[in-house]
Amino acid sequence: MSISKLDFLKFQADSSHILSQRNAELCAHGPILEQDIAITNITLDLLGQARNFYQYAATLSGDPVVTEDSLAYLRNEREYKNLLLVELPAADWSYTVLRQLFYSVYQYLVFEQLEKSTDLQIAAIATKSLKETTYHIKWSSEWVIRLGDGTEESHSRIKKALVDYWPYTGELFIPAPYETETLLGFDLSALKYGWLKQISAVFEEAKLSIPENIFMQTGGKTGVHTEHLGFLLAEMQHLQRSHPGAIW
Amino acid sequence: MTLHDLEKSFQAKIDAEIKIEPKDWMPDAYRKTNLRQISQHAHSEIVGMLPEGNWITRAPSLKRKAILIAKVQDEAGHGLYLYAAAETLGTSREQMIDDLHSGKAKYSSIFNYPTLTWADMGAVGWLVDGAAILNQVMLCRTSYGPYARAMVRICKEESFHQRQGFDALLVLSKGTPEQKAMCQDAINRWWWPSLMMFGPKDSESTNSDQSMKWKIKRKTNDELRQHFVDMIAEQIKLLGMTLPDPDLKWNAEKMHYDFGEINWEEFWNVVKGNGPCNKQRLEARNKAHQEGEWVREAALAYAAKKAERLQKRVA
To answer: Which domain CATH number covers A36?
Structure first.
């Protein structure tokens, strides 16, 4: 099995997994019961997508010791390949919904391409995920609009979230060594325009504008993360690490 | 009709197993008792999300994490149905939630105990949900229609919760020595509080008689508790663990298990707010509510703007 394909699967799995981990922090702490349920649904969808990719990566690895759990729980900060965007803490609800919009639109565009993949397993995961992602985009767009065009306070909060998160969006469409056009079958960087177009349409309704001339942070895809990831993994992995080999 | 006639025909309906519906006449005390009980039940679902939510980010496998998240989400859903059922009695959800946050309304004391290890997720599912189910199965036949119907939906999901709790413990019981110890320790800590969930002894319970007559309840606290002990005393054998009660033993004459005396002092202390987590649970609920205030305001403001724009367009 090609290392590149495995790396790509791990990258996809890690990104959805880490975002589901971040969103899960809100479970039982949401702003209103109905939205607690909604964000938890999204959390479960992302976790399901991550598991699909991890399981496929485990199968392809050809190593019987490798499982979805060993990939999720026994790799370190430098081995995790997730986007920087998904590992950042969310300071409030505006961060949560804005990040979800950025990530879900990105996912949608990538899955649309992966659906055409000659690897039938990847194509199947993409098809299933597209249905979920369609709802995630609808939900997060509505919230970004509501907050952007809600009260003065909600507008200034989401504006702050935008300032804080925007520098982490550049990485989405910069191909990692395992994302070249030859390997993926499509040009990742070309998807950026579609993403900007969709985000701009939501922003227009939300009375927000796309920040310009912002320096973009990168590194997640190749395992160079922010300082936040170590803490997230320490918490998440602690039982697997402190009881080596145990079954749960 | 005089008040006496109304009461008589109300009781006749109950005796004939006809459900009481929101628009039917009902005694004030019936309304109040149901409102108190249903809203308490709703609050218990919502506060109950906290001790389990505590382990979501540390769940030891992806499968366990998915199950736990789904379970906590189910509880939010149960809270929603129950608030809706309680609202049919004339109090808004907002008011009920304010009463919870101010400490005026109660919720099940069991959630004032901490979840200290992963095994607690299993023990809470098996024992706490197991005890809750016995009460809830009975409530599927309670006399107030909206409550009974909400309970039917809830019971289906709760029995899944109990099974997954037992399954999580079963895996631990077959695991490493540390996992086995963790499993026994969780059972030791959750056993007595679970027995307390059925409430005071029948001889001490103030609300029991009238609630039985109105068929809000159909079994007494002690009957339900005995049923629970009989069930768990058998199931624990499958885990190869023990219950922390030296007096627990089969009584062939009564065809029930005898069990030891509950620490009622602890029970009343937790009810009064002195449990290990009473303060933390309410603080967590208040914090989520307060931090969500600007979100709810923004949603309302946006909805109003949207409606206004629509109206202008129509005009």
So the answer is: 1.20.1260.10
